[in-house]
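May I ask for a sample protein chain and its fold as tokens?
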Amino acid sequence: MAVSLEKGQKISLEKEAGKSLTKVIMGLGWDVAQKRGFFGGKGGSIDLDASCVMFDGNRQADTVWFRQLKSRDGSVVHTGDNLTGEGEGDDEQIIVDLSLVPANISALVFTVNSFTGQNFKNVGNAFCRIVDASNKKEIARYDLTGGAENNAMVMAKIYRHNNEWKMHAIGEQATGKTFKDLMPTIVQFL
């Protein structure tokens, strides 16, 4: 059973999964915008983007996003950019092989941005979730709800603590078209 995360909540991914995790998937999903009046906003496509910023201490070591679909070490892979939110389930996924994440990487921070600029209040049914890749069971979920006026969010951080992977549901609203615009907000949570 998945844990519905609230802003600021921290969980042990291994305890939630009931076993040692080796591979997780961060899924991002949202609904396609209708022509006009979708949640009171302007019509047109909505392009949300998932990113994963890898940190060595407080220093950015690598980033996986729509312009770089694989980390240099191969431990983190983005499945590709979805420009519309069309389709059921996850519209974008970032797959993390925790067993391959180099020992010097202390944290992985996941972000979501509206590349097309819409505020989240104009995006229907947006969510971020962490899934155990071995059995496809949802471990944790964070829903983007509440009519946020921002178009980006620092969603969550997966980090090492006492030889175990933990997750911190950050849920910090921000503004920007890519993860680069969010770096001042991200570093506050390292």
